[in-house]
Amino acid sequence: MSEREKVLITVKTYPTISEKYGELVCTAGIREDGSWVRIYPIPFRRFEQFKRFAKYTWIELPLTKNTDDPRPESFKPTRWDIETLEKVDTKDQWETRKRLVLKDSVYENMAVLIDKAKANELSLATFKPNEVFDFVWEEVEREWDPKKLESVLMDLRQGLLFEPEGFIKDFKVMPKLPYRFFYIFKDAKGQRSRMMLEDWEVGQLYWNCIRTSGSEQEALKKVKQKYFDEFVLKKDLYFFLGTTRRYHSWAKNPFVIIGTFHPPKVIQKSFDFTF
Q1: The domain 3-90: what is its CATH number?
Q2: 79/29 Cα distance (integer angstroms)
Q3: pLDDT digit string, tens, across residues 191-238
Q4: Which of 65, 67, 194, 196 has the fewest CB atoms within 10 Å distance of its CB?
Q5: What is the CATH number of domain 105-140+177-261?
C-alpha cells in the first residue's frame, strides 16, 4: 500500500541508462523527521517542465517500499502524481537548510558506515570529511553501451503513443560524461578514501564549461575550481553518500558521493576580555 510522503530533495545524480527503466536519475532526500529516502526509478528528464523539481525543494508523492531493492531507504512512486511545494532558500548562511539536512546523524567514520551498510542498516548518509586532499578525474568510455542505448531508444519509439500526461514527446537521451570525478579525503579516524562523485551538477558544470571554454582540459580545470578551490577551501563541505545496489552488502567500500552540501563557513567572532 502506498501513501503520500513529503520529501526534501537533496540528491539528483547524473542521468544513467537502463535496459529495464530507460534513462533515470537517482533521486534522494530527507523526510521532515530527518530520515533518508531513495526514490527510484524516476524518469526525471522526461517530465514536462512543470513537473520537474529543483534540489532543496519539498515535494509530495505516493511512495511504496521498493521490493526489488533490499536497501532500507529505497522506495518507488506508485504513480506520477508529484506535487512540488516550497523551496528552502539559503538565507542566513543556509540556516534552514542546515537545520533540516544536519538534523539526523552526521557520520565522520567510514568504517562505521561500511559496517552499517553490510548489516543493511542504511544505504544513505550525510558524511563530514576530516580533510579533503584533492579533486581528480579519469577518462572513461565516451558513449553509452550500444545495447542499452538501443533498448532505451526502442522503448521511446514504442512508448510515444502511451506516455502519461506530463511526459515530453521529443525526448533525447543525455550524453554520457567522458570523465569520472573523485574526491580524495580522510575521515576522523585517518582512513583515506578515493570516492567517485556522481552528482548531476558536476556533470552539468562540465558541459557548461565545455561550451564556454571549448577545451576539455580548460573545462576540467574550471570544474576543479568549483569543487575544490571553492567548496573545499571556502565552504563547510559535507558529502551525501549512497551505496550502489550492486555492491551494497559486500564491497570493501560500497559508497559513492551522490551529492555535496556546502554551506558557507561560519566565522566565529573573537572577543577581547582584557580589562
Answers
A1: 2.40.50.730
A2: 18
A3: 999 999 999 999 999 999 999 988 999 999 999 999 999 999 999 999
A4: 67
A5: 2.40.50
- Domain borders along the chain are 3-90, 105-140+177-261
16: Cβ contacts below 8 Å, ≥ 6 apart: 23, 24, 26
- Cell readout for 234 is 571556502
Residue with cell 560524461: 177
